[in-house]
Amino acid sequence: MKWLLILIGLALIGAAGVGYVASIDLLTTEIGMLYATCAVSALLGGLVFLALAALTYRVDALRAAVLRQSSFEATRRAAPDIDFAPSVAVEPQWRERAEAPVDEARGEAEAPVGSEAAPTLVGRYSAGGTSYNIFSDGSIEAQTGQGDFRFASMSEFKAFVATKRE
Asked: What is the pLDDT of residues 20-60, one digit of tens each?
């Protein structure tokens, strides 16, 4: 479609050039003025067709970008369904990390005895204005408008959500 618009636009601009050249010698007569007026009209029509071709090109590029984005969003949204049935009513608790004792002689923090490495971030999810971070140990952090919550497990999170819906 856009190539046809470009060809028509270029043909009209070419016809405008021919009409203008033909009107030069006859400019003092009525037919010369008619040629010049038609040349200007053809030139403007050609420019309009070229503008439509450019617009068509941009719309096609925008449509392709939207299709790529929607297919990306569709694959990103594919997540397992979560059952929010209440199993146990549990209030979220603020969990703070235990401070590691500091070896003052070396100025370094020692790892607490029997502690494991900090859990790593496995995934992020956003829904309904809430952002969720899921960690390798199964814990979940939720950043909401009411504050930040940390849940030790998915079942604790489900119970909290179920109590909020009631």
From this structure: 998 888 888 998 899 899 999 999 999 999 999 999 999 99
Structure token digits, residue 166? 């009631």
Phi, psi dihedrals of residue 32, rounded to the nearest 5°: -65, -45
Rg, C-alpha atoms of the chain: 35
Q: CA 14 to CA 140: how far, in whole Å?
A: 68
d(CA 78, CA 68): 16
| pLDDT-flagged residues of the chain (< 50) | 80, 86, 88, 97-98, 109
Buried b (16+ CB within 10 A) or exposed e, 104-122: eeeeeeeeeeeeeeeeeee
What contacts 27, CB < 8 A, 6 or more positions away? 33, 36
CA 31 and chain centroid, separation:
58
pTM: 0.42
